[in-house]
User: Fold these one by one.
Assistant:
Number 1:
Amino acid sequence: MSAVLSFGERTLELDQPRIMGILNVTPDSFSDGGRFFDREAAAAHAQELVAAGADILDVGGESTRPGAVEVPLQEELDRVIPVIEAVSELGVPISVDTRKAAVMRAAAAAGAAMINDVSALEHDPEAEATVAELGMPVCLMHMQGTPETMQDNPRYRDVVAEVRTYLAERARQCAAAGIDPANLLLDPGIGFGKTVAHNLALLHHLENLADLNYPLVVGTSRKSLAGKLLNREVEQRVFGDAAVIGWLVSHGADVVRVHDVAAARDVVRMTQALATARIPQ
Ligand code: 7PM
């Protein structure tokens, strides 16, 4: 039996790999010099992602790229809340990528239906209780260190075992804090305090994480994995990323978090057709 995510009256069955489209809310896409993201531009981009086959839209106003410093609360609110309001009527659940409880609350009030926290609800001491109260699905992601310094010298004794143990433990703690286990999704956090070798090991052993029996989210889109392995600039990573998505969905990923939704949709369909093929009678 496949898991089902429930977003208020809407549900999303994870009977096939689902696509989480990343909605751009970066400061360089701000029209007025940096404070308020252009609602029209966001809505247009969101519509494209949905038309291309996105099952969930992920809106994040906090850059967690390596070296990034924390965004002040008000600035993060100014970035994401107008965008969530503008896109929450598209018929697709909206996830908010944030580590702050106040942003989670405001995003939910603006129409968000899911929380995506790269700190697995550890950054803000109020986050666990907030998510328990909101009663929404939440993605718990593994990260070693903090975005500012995480890529300086990532080290593990056994990256697969450590990420697995961490995610299992966070799931247990979140359930103890009152979050319905049916609302938990797990994510190995590709690129978050990990070298290319660490990322490859996690992807190679993805089944190890899939068998924790929570829906598994994985995001590799445009990350330095394909960048370093193939020596490609950000805009030239589509084929590398497509290969990774094929691997992910044939090794237990339930949700792939991507920028290029149309490419991901095709890869998911082809991989599913291959994985479920039978000899015709
Ligand atoms: C700049 C560089 C901005 C990198 C943003 C990023 C993940 C995530 C991100 C992930 C989940 C990106 C990252 N990555 N949430 N948020 N899983 N659940 O490449 O892998 O989008 S931010």
Note: The longest strand covers residues 18-23.
Number 2:
Amino acid sequence: MKLKIALLPGDGIGPEVTNQAVKALKAIASEYDHNFQFTQADVGAIAIDKFNDPLPKETLDLCKSSDAVLFGAIGHPKYDNDPSAKVRPEQGLLKLRKELGLFANIRPVKAYPTLLNKSPLKKDIIEGTDISIYRELTGGIYFGKKELSDDGNIASDLCEYSRPEIERIAHLAFKSAQTRNHKVTLVDKANVLESSRLWRRVVTEVAKGYPQVTLDFLFVDNAAMQMILNPKQFDVILTENMFGDIISDEASVIGGSIGLLASASVGDKYSMFEPIHGSFPQATGKGIANPIASILSAAMLLDHFNLNTEAELIRAGVEKSLKLKISTPDINPASDKVTTSIVGDFIEDFIFNPKDTNLNFMNIHLGQSTII
Ligand code: IPM
Ligand code: MG
């Protein structure tokens, strides 16, 4: 298959983790005879530095003329600590999501058997957890009218949703549940918010078209608690933009590290794949960033184009790396030798030689003695 992939590494650790995902995709292309073409462009703080625009026109044009976008991370502390900044890196990401019509953000959350003891939650609670979060991505409070009074003392952000905006993501969530454990949980705040009551009405109607799928409802405050108390109760979680942002970071604790969580953002025409973690400025260039979320985002990209065997191979490589503890310090604090690119090299190597025990790889890269 021929795919034009726009690479937007962005800020902080974005470039280093994206490089590892590209390595994995190039290995897949060579093993399966695909033609993946990568073209890189700037987004976020780096684009502000260069062009005074977090999403330059050339970047947006590149995304629109590509089959898929592989995104790294954006953000820089100089903007986080300056509430008066008019231009912010995050605006680039939000505009990109809106311009590409990426209304559904899918965030899988899984407890890896080899990492059960890495989570601060008890093993019994998280073992077997397998959740797919469907977060609405182009509406709600993120995109509603924003106002600040002239004296700067009153501010407001409008949370607005329309029926079609809810219907289109609800259909995707129900379709996904049909292939999984047949359950959708709508997370909202319908006891307080009018917009949440609209979500309940519309989602209840959509559910009628999927009789094999059970629909239940949870208020977001309760859902936040249930995510910690009993995450296994969830299959597909459907929710609006900001609740999805919050609950997915919370859910990442189940996997043992936010550095493992990938995501796919899809619309009617375009698709983008990105780790859910941020730019982690303190780690930039140190080789300690976990590339797995980016590599798994690349696997989601392959799935999106029905290259499921290829995606599975990447996932098998990730699982093998976790099993062999070829992992960055967020999940393997004992090892200071395993860098971001060593994890990437291992997974690349696995793609080329999935049957190999990889002992050789470990010996060469980790400087261990060869016992042959
Ligand atoms: C995410 C991030 C973004 C969001 C930020 C960087 C704007 O937290 O993708 O979850 O809030 O959507
Ligand atoms: Mg977030």
Note: The chain has a mean pLDDT of 94.
